[in-house]
Specification:
Length: 93
């Protein structure tokens, strides 16, 4: 099966695996202070602080934390949207 086909199968659309959730929770446990700074920066509009806290995380940790709220992710839909916004990326400069 091709990767592109896998994403269209029912199995690929099923709930996140237990291993993925475990990796997420380990990343939350190990990076709670950074997560709180990201959340605070988004809520208060201090995006440079949120960007700094996010960018301090290595890419593996960022990937582990990027779990949808539907699947138990630590960031809300609104927070994830803010982190993908132009304003968030502009704060990086």
């Amino acid at each position: 099966m091709k990767v592109s086909e896998a994403f269209t199968t029912e199995a690929a659309l099923a709930a996140v695996t237990a291993e993925r959730r475990y990796l997420h929770m380990v990343a939350v446990r190990d990076n709670l202070t950074s997560i709180l700074w990201i959340k605070k920066g988004i809520v208060t509009g201090d995006l440079p602080s949120a960007v700094e806290a996010w960018d301090e995380l290595d890419s593996d940790t960022q990937i582990a934390l990027w779990l949808s709220p539907r699947d138990g992710g630590v960031f809300t839909t609104a927070e994830r949207k803010a982190m993908h916004s132009d304003e968030f990326n502009e704060a990086r400069q």
